[in-house]
Write a structure and sequence with these properties.
Elements: E1 2-6, E2 15-19, E3 29-39, H1 41-48, H2 56-63, E4 77-84, E5 96-99, E6 111-115, E7 119-121, H3 128-132, H4 135-148, E8 156-160, H5 165-176, E9 180-185, H6 190-196, E10 200-203, E11 215-220, H7 227-230, E12 234-242, H8 247-252, E13 256-257, E14 260-264, H9 271-282, E15 290-295, H10 299-307, E16 314-318
Parallel strand pairs: 8-9, 8-11, 9-10, 11-12, 12-14, 15-16
Antiparallel strand pairs: 1-2, 3-4, 3-6, 3-16, 4-5, 5-7, 13-14
Length: about 325
Amino acid sequence: MRVWECRRYGGPEVLRQANRPRPAPGPDEVLIRMAATTVSSGDARIRASDFPGGFWLPARMMLGLLRPRRKVLGCQLSGVVAEVGENVSRFAPGNEVTAFPDTRLGAHAEFAAVPQRAVEAKPFGLDFAESAALGFGGTTALWFLRETARLKRGEKLLVIGASGAVGSAAVQIGRHLGARVTGVCSGPNMNLVHSLGAVEVTDYTRVDPFAGGPHHVIFDTVGSTTFAQALGALAPDGRYLAAVASVIAMLRAGKKDSGAEMIAGSPPDAPALFADVVAMAAAGVLRPLIDSQFPFSALPQAHARVDSHHKRGSVVVTLT
């Protein structure tokens, strides 16, 4: 089978296409023939060894000190079940599915063996490209908003980076949870963010992104602000959520200043979160935003698009 390997850290040019044996599913695994996958910001960070401040060495120790330990990147995919392990009862060959291998990676390949707990039926009404883009943005947004910030109906939510994969999911999930959502993005994306459910949209190139406060929850999905900068725009019981945080920010996580709390970290490997995100998509609550699509042969170009920092939603790669 064809795969894309990241054999050393660097730009998109370090990626190389290779052939590997088709994997056999383990007893609790589902072998999926990939129809679509994505290049997420996480994939791009791993490939480039571009980690938030202070995390370079810990990340290299975990991912590979001199070169990536797991050469086949890709944290999410959709496709058709090709084979199942002996303990798999929820799926059968021919089922259309979406999967979120998350930190196990391996989705940038024609076939991927994924634990059945990380696999869900492809939601009706979503195509393979949209289904492949559910996991990364959806689970991150849901974990921050519902599990850590405990966003309440009627609260004011400010989403910074509202047109990205995480931000666009946060706008939709925040609206679903009953919040009054304000999105922050660049001017060309304002109408798009409005269409996702934001009541108000701010162009950060023209207006202070914290305007319109106080906000009960400020969710910075792109790492462009700090807790200190946001304090003046937070309500006394406000929560500042940092999806991209430095070591210093992580050390402040859980601490309060003037009654407001700083929350940082990353979602746990929780299949229940992914199942909830898929259920939201099936119910029409959440629809992944697709920036662009590339054929499998052009996966380095998809990485380059992510590196541009101008994508809107997810960059999808389809098997051709």
